[in-house]
Amino acid sequence: MDVQNGQTLDELIDAFSLHLRRTRGTHLDDCANNARYARSFIEHVCGSESSVDVAVFTAPDVIAFIESIVGRYQPTTLRHVSTALRNFFRFLRFQGLRDDRLDEVVPGVVHRRFTGLPRHLDTDQLEQFIAGLDRSTPCGLRDRAMILCIARLGLRASEVVRLCLEDIDWRDAVIHVHTRKTGRGALLPLVADVGEALFEYIEE
Questions:
Q1: Is the pTM of this model over 0.70?
Q2: How many helices (H) and strands (E) does the chain have?
Q3: Which residue, 53, 92, 163, 182, has most beta carbons within 10 Å?
């Protein structure tokens, strides 16, 4: 489909969707999402004008549009919006309607997973958590032993999963950790509840 400047909004969006399907092989659902977000951007900039002049789009327009939707969408959706705008601006360049790289000014959206989780548990919360583990199953005994190694000895998860039976010196009540973050091994005291949890797991 030939695209010319000054087309109606519907014609421009239809051409964009067709481009995504034919040139990019984009899934129909993703095409629809790209088209919807591109339409929202155009309406944000051009309002209800009958024809669209793509030459009027500027970098501040892009930033302002993203800022206007930050409070309305979740980070995942914001990433989809940013991707749709980049695709749209690349489409304009592909069609020869713009020769700049407006796609490069679309701001990235940082989304850190698990940001809603607490960074640590206080002493009472930790004890409540440990007490709530099911000690009637092998999995529960394993989890309890691992968590106590982390909580009481300060081991990293990778160090816990590498522990072997021969690393535990029951007579001298120490644990030999082969790989620490520093690259050196360490001898750590086998405190009572950790030793009990490890023994209980091994015994079962």
A1: no
A2: 8, 3
A3: 92
